[in-house]
Amino acid sequence: MLVPRYADEVAGAGAGAVRLEPGLVQRLGVRTAPARLGVLAPRLRVAGVVAFDEREVAVVQARVDAIVERLHVRAPWATVRRGEPLLTLLAPSWTAAQEEYLALRGSTHAGMETLRDAARQRLLLLGMDAASIRALEQRGSAQPRIALLAPRDGGLAELAVREGASVAAGTALARINGLDSVWIEAAVPERDAARVGPGTPAIATLAALPGQRYEGLVEALLPDVDPATRTLTARIVLSNPDHALLPGMFPEVELAPAAPDGERVLVPSEAVIATGVRQVVIVAEGKGRFRAQEVRVGTEAEGSSEILAGIEEGEPVALSGQFL
Question: How far is CA 228 from CA 129, 224, 231, 253, in A?
Answer without folding.
Answer: 50, 12, 8, 21
